[in-house]
Amino acid sequence: MKILRNKIGIEKEIEEFLNCVSRSGMIFRQGCDYYLAGNQEDFSRKLKEISDCEHAGDQLRRSVNEYLYKKTLIPESRGDVMELMENMDSLLDRFKGALWRFEIEQPYLCEEFHEDFRNLINSVIEATEAIVLSCRAFFTDISTVSAHLHKVSYWESESDKISSKLQSAIFRNKDLRLSHQRQQQDFARHLDKIADRAEDISDRLNIYTIKRSL
Amino acid sequence: MFSVFLSSGFFLGWSLGANDASNVFGTAVGSRMIRFRTAAIYCSIFVILGAVISGAGASHTLGKLGAVNAVAGAFIVAFSAALSVYLMTMARFPVSTSQAIVGAIIGWNFFSGSVTDMGALTKIVSTWVLCPLLAAGIAVVFYLATSFSINHFRVHMFRLDLITRYSLLLAGIFGSYALGANNIANVMGVFVPVAPFDTLSIFGMSLSPAQQLFFLGGVAIAVGVFTYSKRVMLTVGSGIFGLTPVAAAVVVWSHSAVLFLFSSQALEAWLQGHNLPTIPLVPVSSSQAIVGAVIGIGLLKGGRGIKWRTVAGITSSWVSTPVIAALVCFVSLFFLQNVFQQQTFKPVEYSISKAAMDKIKETGIPHEGLEEILWENYPNSREFARAVSARVHLGKDDFSELLQLAELFEVGVSARSLDVLRSEGLAIPDELFAAKLDGRTFMHKWEIREVLAEISEKFRYRDGDDSWNVQVDERFNRFFSELEN
Known about the structure:
The structure holds two protein chains of two kinds. Chain A contains six helices and no strands.
C-alpha cells in the first residue's frame, strides 16, 4: 500500500509541476498586459508570482527526479520523463526571464504594435497550453498525445507569422529610432523563441510516445 | 551408487536453471524492474513446488517413449542430453532440453534394442511445433486485451509501472511453477523407473519416490538459478527483447500459460470432464515458447523486426538437437557398457505365450500368422517387432498393445508381496490374497494387472480419466519393481 501511496504522490507532483508551467504562461500574459497598460504595481505583483511559480516548479522537478532514481521507477522511460520535465522547466524559465527583461530593460513598445504583441503572446501561451496538455496525455492517455501535439505546431507557426509581420512593421516605422526598433525586434524574437521551444519539446515528446507505444 | 549416477540429472537440472530461468525472469531483471535476488528466490521456490506438485504429468509421457530400466542407462541419457544442450549452446543454436532428452531416450532405445513408441513420439514432436504456435496465439490475445485495457482505463504511467512490476513478478512466479512442472520430466524423468526410494512422509504429507526425485531436480534447478542465471538474465533482458516492459510481461504470461497447458493434470481432467479435446502433457521448450510469443507480437505489429534466422534456427533444432543427443547417447552407452562394464539396460524379453495369444484374440488385434511365432522367445522388442511385421501388418496402437501382451515378466508372488500391496493402501484380506495371488507364477505383467484389478478398484483403469490412470500405472510400476527385487 505504501508503494501505491508513493505512486499517487509522484503522480500528484508531476500534475503540480505541469500546473506550474501552465500557470506561468497565464501569469506571463497578465504581466505583459499590465506592462503594456503601464500598470507597474500589478506588473510587479505578477513578477513576484512568476518567480514563486518558477521556484515551486524547480522544487517539484527535483523531487520527481530524485524519486524516479531512488525507487528505480519506469526504468525504460525514466530518462525520457526527466528530459521532458527539464524541457518543460525551460519554458517556465523563459516566461520568467521574459517578464524580468521587461522589468530590467523597461523597453519602449510603440502603441501601434501593442495589439500585435498581445497576439504574439497569445499564440505563445496557446502553444504552451497545448504542450502541457500533450504532456498530461503522455502520462495518462498515450493514445491522445498526437491530438494535442499538432496544436503545438499550429500555434508555433502562428507565432512565427505574427512575429515576422511585427518585426517588418517595426523596421518599416521610420519614426522610431534604430535602438527602439532593435529592442522591440529583440522582444518579439524572444517571445517567438518560447513557441519554438514548445515545438522542439513536442518533437521530442513525439519520439518518447513512439518509444512508449506498446 | 545411485547418487553418483544421479549427478548427470543434477547437471542437466543445473543447466536448465541457469538457462531457462532467464526466460521467466530475464526481462524483469534485465530491465531492472525486479532485483535479481528477489527473482532468484521466487524462481527457486516455485520451480521446486511446480516440480513436486505437478511434475508427474509430463514425465509420464516421456516414460512412455522409453522406460530406461537401468540406473547407468538413465545416467547416460541425462548426461547426453546435458552435453548436447551444452554443445548446442556453445554453437549458438537455440536449444531445448526437452528435445535433447527425447533424442537421448531414442538413442537408449536403439542401444537396448527397444522399440520407440511411435504414438508417444508423434505426440511429443507435434507439441514442439504446437508450442511456439500456441505461444504466439496466446501472446496476440493477451497483447490485444492488455492494449485495450490500458487505453480504455487510461492508466497513469506510474500506476502502469506498478502494475507491470507486479505482473512481471506474478508471471515469473507462474512461469517458474509451470517450468518446474513441465521441464522436471526432462531432468529427472529417466530416473523415475530406477529410483530406489521409498514413499516418504513429512508433516503428514507423503512424497512418492518420483516426487522425491523431482524435489532433488528442483533443487538442482534452483542452484542453477542462483549460481549462473544472472548473466543470462541480463543478456536476455537487454539483448533479445526489443519490447516495452508491458509487452515483455505479456510475453512471459503467454510462455507460462503454454507451459502450464502442457503440464497441468488438473486442466486435463477438467477438459475430459467437459468432453473437450485434451492437450498432451509433454515437456516443451521454454525458450521456444518465449520466442513464439515474441514472434506473435511481432506479427501483430506488422511483422517488422522479426528475426527470421531465429525462426529457422528453431525449426532446424527440432531435428538437429534430438539427432545429436541420440548419437551422443548411443556412443556413450557403448563406452559405459563395454569399457566400464556397467549395465545400461535390463533386457526385456518378448514371447507370445498361450495366454497372450488368447488375450490377443480377445482384444481383436489382427493375429493371422502370429501362431507361427507362438512360444518363440525374442531378446528385445526390436527383434520381436521384426518377427511380427514379417507376418502381420499392425497399426501403431495395435502394435503397442501387442508389445504389452507379449512382454515377459516371469515372477512368483510370495507373502512379501502382500506387504507391498498394503503399503499402497490396499486393504486386501489374507484369504483373498491367498486365493488369487499367493504362490502363483505369472508370465506377463498384464496377467498380474488383471488379477489386481479384480481385487481392488485402486488397480482398475478408468476410461477417459488420464490422471487416475497415471496413478494406477505408478502403483503397478512400484509393485512390479518390488516383485523384481
